[in-house]
Amino acid sequence: MLEIKNPEKVDFYVEYDPASFGPVQSPDDIIDVYLQTDYGVVHFGASKAITNKQKQEVADKLNGSLGTILKQIDDESQ
Fold first, then answer.
1. String of b and e for 18-31 (b: at least 16 CB within 10 Å)?
2. Rounded to an integer, what distance in angstroms lies between the CA atom of residue 46 and that of residue 24?
3. SS3 of residue 62 by DSSP
4. pTM here?
5. For a surface tag, which of 19, 31, 37, 78 has the fewest beta carbons within 10 Å of its beta carbon?
6. How far apart (Å, rounded) are the C-alpha atoms in residues 37 and 56?
7. How far apart (Å, rounded) are the C-alpha atoms in residues 56 and 35?
8. Is residue 31 within 8 Å of residue 14, measured between CB atoms?
């Protein structure tokens, strides 16, 4: 997992509840997270309290999910 600061391009936007990564009391407690996955740069909002372990878990989950989805699209187009 590689976290990217201010990428020029985002390939996927994913919706997560920012509070699932830690406490959120106000909009100021939410940060933008950009991760490089096997399929491109992914953006999601998260609590400032998010850990590197949580980021890695998200990247791993997205690599699996995006791989499955893109394979299905490729199979259907053939």
1. beebeebeeeeebe
2. 9
3. helix
4. 0.83
5. 78
6. 10
7. 9
8. no
